[in-house]
Amino acid sequence: MRYEEVTSVEENVLREVKVEYFPELSGAKIKLLFDTKKKTTGGKLVFARIQKPNELTRFFTTNETDDDEGYDYIIFLDKMLWDNIEDSDKKRLLQHEMRHTFVDLDSNNPWKLQGHTVEDFYEEIALNVDDPRWSERLGYLLTDLYEEEKELNR
Fold first, then answer.
1. What are the tens digits of pLDDT across the range 20-72?
2. How buried is residue 48: exposed, middle or buried, by Cβ count under 10 Å (0-12/13-18/19+)?
3. What CA–CA distances, in Å, run from 85 to 79, 129, 139?
4. For the chain, domain boundaries
5. pTM
6. CA distance 9 to 30
7. What CATH topology corresponds to 3-152?
């Protein structure tokens, strides 16, 4: 299987990030999943991604959320990366994905997605002044990890 369930450890990290940085998402139901395969977009490795579930996915997740709506967002985490980074980078990664969210209280479905404000987010630039190239550092790490895996499977 390409996807795996996360554990309560990852869910707790998400909860911490949500409470500390995204109080406007307190009512949003967010599903975390591990992606066990390498994913690239535009030639770049994907560390994580967030998406709005389609109607079918929402239908299949109603049992998990105990309501008729299912999840509002799904965040996919590259498992290889997640298992090899520090807790501070895990929080950075989740903060980044959650910055893609936008809450429109005037809409029937207030949970929206938005693109980057720059190649990053202005808020993250300020928050990561201690490690402004964290994303690049994680990219090198993940490239090395996948190369290592490929060599072991030969």
1. 999 999 999 999 999 999 999 988 899 999 999 999 988 888 888 888 888 99
2. buried
3. 10, 19, 11
4. 3-152
5. 0.79
6. 15
7. Zincin-like (3.30.2010)
